[in-house]
Amino acid sequence: MANPSAVCNGHLHHHQKQNNLLKSGVCKKNGITKGMKKNGVSNGTLYKKTFIEHFEQAPMYVAVLTFVGFGVGTIFGYLRDFMRAWGLEKRNIAEEREQQKDFVPLYQDFETFYTRNLYMRIRDNWNRPVCSVPGPQFDLMERVTDDYNWTFRFTGRTIKNVINMGSYNYLGFAETDVNALKTVTRELQKYGTGICSTRQEMGTLDKHVELEKLVAKFLGVEDAMVFGMGFATNSMNIPALVGKGCLILSDELNHTSLVLGARLSGATIRIFKHNNMQSLEKLLRDAIIYGQPRSHRAWRKIIILVEGIYSMEGSIVRLPEIVSLKTKYKAYLYLDEAHSIGAVGATGRGVVEYFGMSPGDVDVLMGTFTKSFGAAGGYIAGKKDLVDFLRTHSHSAVYATSMCPPVAEQIIRAMKCLMGLDGTTQGLQRVRQLGKNTRYFRRRLHEMGFIIYGNDDSPVVPLLLYMPGKIGAFARRMLEKNIGVVVVGFPATPITESRARFCVSAAHTREMLDTVLNALDELGDFLQLKYSRYSKSSHPELYEETRFEHED
């Protein structure tokens, strides 16, 4: 039998203790949630399927060596700054003009310390120019640096057929097939590329109306509104929904667009620990009991902000428990499905479908078309009253240029494919293939001994690297093997949790995934990245075992 802790969410979350996981009823026995009482509801009645996530802590020596690595880098950074100040090393960074030496610095010197002394050493691993469609494989423009990553020059050579493990092309709709794009080409010829107006002026076309009706039908809600930019869908609409005297309860790992929208709203913001229902319920209870600071008046409204799939952790929101809490305390729920719509659920309808819940359980459904649909923009959906309110009050509707028609048609094409309205089952096949690829990729990484975060059904797969020196080494060596990866470090992640983030696609073939996995196996041994302390199974079928007891 495989180690039960490695199969059932027994890995310690980096924000929670193991007993909290047990109390919240996430760990499974015989394929169902343990029926422990919480919020007056047995969690065994909330989850209709197994909910398995992994957040294994690294051994202590890894954390120590990670801090040592950052410490050494910081010491040498100060030494280099000293040399730059005395003219012993060339300064490549922006400087204040001599006439402004007495001003408060516009370029905060200390704030850019990390950028110029640590990030610059591995800068070549980001912003690589892609010169093809970001499908399962792409082409890169080769570049080199002569001044240690301060500047780059192109060699004129193209690196062909790099396996793409970084793009959010979950369902493979980022494609250039002529037959698939016939309708998009037709709309481009009919409407052109731009609207040159906002939705409230002369920027609403029949394509926008068609798309909004289709989105509402796809999600099973009364109405929907689409926007030309995914980021702005959050940042420009949250301020229209809440304001002064309102309370926002936000997951600590929410995307920057949610954070910015919350700050722009002027509402009071309180943070709860990631996916931690005890933390969220405490904030809700305190908000009801104590009300607003000083006056202690009741909050005008309380809204909970969460994501469907968290893009850096690969975890899935514990939606059944959050809906139970928001119902109990009469709060509103705003769900960002940027990474989950199209990617999870039996027919790609996101985490609401994944948990077998009703769209009516969520007050504000938000998602983007930039990932699973291979396009751009976003949507907000729900009750007709909500959407009608946003049509009048949304900053994006009033000030932002409308979505261009060819992009709208691409979304319609992909969504009809998912719904089977194109007369084929290709959309459903893509959703199923993504699920198979995701589970296969994650299972193999566990067997190899890597520490990976997130839910077993999440196509976002973070592989922990930890030490700063291994970030650059990992990405460079993977590119040498013709594999393109995304590496992430501080400040985008906690300082001790640098990682590589893989995005699995339905367009990846088994041969592609095996090529990546073989390269990872070899590189994991070379860079000593296999930190997992749980025993690796030589029998993959044991990972499907559901009859086991959790070790206390």
Automatic annotation (TrEMBL):
Involved pathway(s): Lipid metabolism; sphingolipid metabolism; Sphingolipid metabolism
Transmembrane segments: 58-79
GO biological process: ceramide biosynthetic process; sphingosine biosynthetic process
Coiled-coil residues: none
PROSITE patterns: AA_TRANSFER_CLASS_2
GO cellular component terms attached to this protein's record: endoplasmic reticulum membrane; serine palmitoyltransferase complex
Membrane topology: Single-pass membrane protein
Record-listed E.C. numbers: 2.3.1.50
Top enzyme category: transferase
SUPFAM superfamilies assigned to the protein according to its UniProt record, in alphabetical order: PLP-dependent transferases
Keyword flag Membrane: yes
GO molecular function: pyridoxal phosphate binding; serine C-palmitoyltransferase activity
Cofactor(s) essential for the protein: pyridoxal 5'-phosphate
Localization, UniProt: Endoplasmic reticulum membrane
Residue ranges of domain Aminotransferase class I/classII large in the record: 160-520
Primary localization: endoplasmic reticulum
Pfam families: Aminotran_1_2
UniProt keyword annotations, A-Z: Acyltransferase, Endoplasmic reticulum, Lipid metabolism, Membrane, Pyridoxal phosphate, Sphingolipid metabolism, Transferase, Transmembrane, Transmembrane helix
Family to which the UniProt record says this protein belongs: Belongs to the class-II pyridoxal-phosphate-dependent aminotransferase family.
Protein name, per record: serine C-palmitoyltransferase
Organism the protein comes from: Anseranas semipalmata (Magpie goose)
Gene (name only): Sptlc3
